[in-house]
Here is the input.
Amino acid sequence: MNTPSFLKGLVWLLVPVWVLSCSPKAEVYKVARPLMGTVVEISAVSDDPRHAAGAIQAAFDEMARLEAMMSVFRDESEVSRLNREASSRPVRVSPELFEVIEMSIALSRTTRGAFDITVGPLMQLWPFYVKEKRLPSAGEIQEVLRRVGYVHVILSPKERTVSFAVPGMALDLGGIAKGYAIDRAVAVLKERGITAALVNAGGDLFAYGEKPGNKPWRVGLRHPRNPQELLAALPLSDKAIVTSGDYERYFLVDGKRYSHIVDPRSGVTAQRTASVTVVASSAAYADGLATGILVLGAEEGLALVESLPGVQAAVVTEGKGDELALQVSKGFREAYPLDVRHLAAQRVRLMH
Here is the structure.
C-alpha cells in the first residue's frame, strides 16, 4: 500500500472533474487520487455537487486512514508495530485491524492455506523491492517457512489482541487491505446519503446503484498480457470485482516470470496462472479469494468457487505458445455472457 515514485508526479494532475448542471439533475461526479500504491477513482451520483464532493472527500479520508494503519511500508503503521512486538507479547490492536486479521484467517481456512497474511517473511526474502534479482535458495526458503503459517497467529477477541506463537513472524496485508479499504469507502458514501457510486482502486472496485438514466456501471476485464485490451466489459451493481494477476508486480530471470504472489505453503512464487477475477459481495473477501485462487490454480480454485454461495470467478492461464486459456465458474458464465470471437481475436481460448 505504498505509493510508487511514478505516481507521485500525478498528485497535482488528478483534480476533481465535476459535471455541472443548472437544474437538480443527477450527475456522476468523479475524483481520482494516488493512494495505496495505485490511482483510486471515486464516482458518485448526486444532484448536489457540494454533497457529492463532501462524501467523496470523506471516503478518500477513510481509505488514507486505513492505508496509514495497515501498510507494511510505513514503520509507524499499526501493522508494522504489531510485527515488531507480537512475537514477545499480545498486542492490542484497533477494531479495524483485528477485523481484517480475523477475516484473513477465515479466508486462509477457506483456501486451505493458499491465502495467508503471515507470508511477510517470504515477501522479504524474494527480491520484489530490490534491484538485484537473486532467487532465494531452497534452503533459505525452508528456513523462512518456519515463520509462516496462519495457525501460529493467536487472536483474543475479548481483549482484541494479536500475538505470534513463532518468533520472527510478520503479517503482510497486501492481499486484502485494499479490498477492505474499498468496502469502507463504500460504507462512508452510503452513510453520507450517496445512493449510487463506484470506488475503483487500480481496477479493483465496488459498484452499487445505477448511473443516471438507469444505466448499470460497466467494468472491463483486463487482458493479462496486453494492458491495452479488454477481454470483456461486464455490467456490475451492488458487487465487488477484484483481479489478482502475475502482471501486477513481477521480475524476469532467464526469461522466466516470477510474480509478487508467493505460495505460502511452498514458499515459491505462483506459476502459470496469469490472472484471477472474483466477483463477490465484499471487496475484501474478493481480494483475498482472488489471491488464494491464483495460488491454487484454475482447477482447484474454480472447484472452490463452486462451493461458495454468491461468488463467481474467471481464471486466465498460460496455454500453448502465446495463447491464453480462460476458464470461468458456472455463475460467472450465467451472469456475464462472453464473446468467443472477441476472445479468439485476443489469442484467448474459452474453455468449457
